[in-house]
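We modelled the chain as a single entity of 132 amino acids. Its sequence is:
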Amino acid sequence: MRIQMTPKTVRRLLSADGYLDLGMPERAIEELDKITDAGPLEGPTQLMHGIALKQVGNFTDAISHLETAARVMPTPIRRFAWRELVDAYRAVGSMKLAEMAQKLGGDCEFQLRIALPFADMTLNIPSHPKTA
């Protein structure tokens, strides 16, 4: 069975990734909000959406997207989503959930790179926003 990805979805995801790299999470959110059916890119879409929402201080909505990413992403990548959830849980006062996310995410810091199937493109998702 072949899974279809629309070029528009890929473009929006790459645009959002670029906006996050440029420190423009509001624009990334605008692009991600336009994705109606991410298909096989649901995990990366949810992860990036959660990261962007976290960067603008909308921790409640960020948690929703990051929890979805933690459920749908493959096991090795799932740890990245759990690591992103730690700060979000702390920000809303859920210390027990933050501790659980810390354990599930592990202690190592890493940068996530998501390769798009059948394409020479990679999404770079930094573990923390760049500071100027």
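As a brief sanity check on the tokenised model: The radius of gyration is 14 Å. Residues 59 and 82 are 14 Å apart (CA to CA).
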